[in-house]
Amino acid sequence: MLRVLLLLSLFSSALIGAVISHEEKGEWSCDSDLDIRVAAGFRPGLVTLDGHADDWKDIDGFEFSLLPALDPDAENEYKAGKLTVKALHDGHDMFFLVQVDGDYVYSKGNNNKCPSVALMFQIGESATYHRMGGCADGPDSCTNKTCKGHEVDIMHFSIGNAIPGRLYGGNPIDNRDGNGGDRFGHLVDLYAWNPHCRYLDGLGPPASGNDTTAQNNWKGAWWHSSFNVHSGFVEEDSPYASDGQKGTYYFEFSRPLRTMDRLQQDAQFTIGGSSNMAVAFWYPLDGTPWHGSGHFSINCDWVPLDISLGSSLLTKAGSSSSTNASSIFAVLLSVVSLCASAFVGYWVFKPKSVHFTPMENL
Q: What are the TM regions of this chain, as residue ranges (predicted)?
């Protein structure tokens, strides 16, 4: 119990630092592109969760410009390149690949001087993208009752203590404590009602009640294209490459379509359905540590995530397999028929010779 309270205290302190100045400069305005969407196709057995993008090469990506979340003006766009989102599911888990161009920077133990990425999903029907759920209550009054309907689900991965290519997120130690933390790599599972009311799954204001059965349901890994080692890094290899090398960051994640959540702290994905999502990216521009509200976003509103049915692909595959089997069977039947015809023809038309038998042998 003491360990959980200490974790909550440390996490709350981090949140306080992260939300300082998390207010827009002037009136909020958003000119959202209503045509953008992310599609998650049914592709079982395709992805290995290791941070490498090789197994995603045949999956269509959706490319976005990155604009500051609090001031989405094109003149302040992230200059190093676009961010691409790819998604798929295998009928049990959702998989996401986030790739973004950026010179390699890494500072071991300092998350704010390393790139970071977050995915956010709508849970409550009244949850808005703007202000991270949009509940009007402050940190002293927000509860699961006063902010009901404004819940959002967040996965945040800060890589300052994460080894490239290694798996982070849900682990037996933190899940045993009943929360969405990750003490090893800071790939954490959160929920929020607004920027000032964010908590690890399973934790929250005393008035909301904590859930000791909560889990971190996410897993993920990261990589950078400048790495020339593919057999695996260990912590002693840090910083893994030289700063300033051109390349692309890859962040790969997975989570079950459905979770055991009972308190509206996880988004639940439905095959054939649609969810709303957002992607945020932090980068230490010019070596300056980023702060919580200083992130870029792919849009100034929710982006629809369409989770496709597998039936059409299975039907196509089944039809193709059936056609191939029928063709093979027809060929075999033709060969057997030809052989049988030749055998019968031989017996019908073969010469019928009469052997001579001497009289003395009769």
A: 328-349
